Amino acid sequence: MAEVKKYQDIILKVLEDYKGQFKKTSKDIQALIVADKENFHYQLMWLGWDGNRHIFTVITFLSIINGKIWVQQDSTEAGIANMLVEEGIPKSDIVLGYFPSDHRALTEFAAA
Questions:
Q1: For the segment 53-84, what is each residue's pLDDT rounded down to a tens digit?
Q2: Residue 111 within a domain
Q3: From CA 4, how far away is CA 37, in angstroms rounded?
Q4: How many domains does the chain divide into?
Q5: What is the mean pLDDT of the chain?
């Protein structure tokens, strides 16, 4: 369980760091981090209004499943998995869940 807590802390740090890269624009849009720590789900999203257009976009969504971080969605430029590796998470503990299982084996990250 200590490893899960460590991974939670790193996920939240990476999301905060990424969120902090964006300055407030004239549009009424904010970056939000949504964290369900009990069920191990974390997301960064845009929410607000651009004129008359409602913005609701999930930038990245992560889960901790069986001790590994599953990247379920990633629309970041650098790749959220790469940011996690920079913070010390081994590639063997990161699953690119948005790829089919047979494709995951071809990546440098965990297959499952």
A1: 999 999 999 999 999 999 999 999 999 999 99
A2: no
A3: 10
A4: 1
A5: 93
Task: Strand 28-36: give its sheet, edge to edge.
Answer: 28-36, 41-50, 53-65, 68-74, 94-96
3-state per-residue secondary structure call for the chain: CHHHHHHHHHHHHHHHHHHHCCCCCCCEEEEEEEEECCCCEEEEEEEEEECCEEEEEEEEEEEEECCEEEEEEECCCCCHHHHHHHCCCCHHHEEECCCCHHHHCCCCCECC
pLDDT by residue (tens digit) across 25-55?
Answer: 557 889 999 999 999 999 999 999 988 999 9
Residue 29: which domain range?
A: 2-104
6 part of a folded domain:
yes
Q: Which of 22, 55, 58, 28 minimizes the C-alpha distance to 43?
A: 58
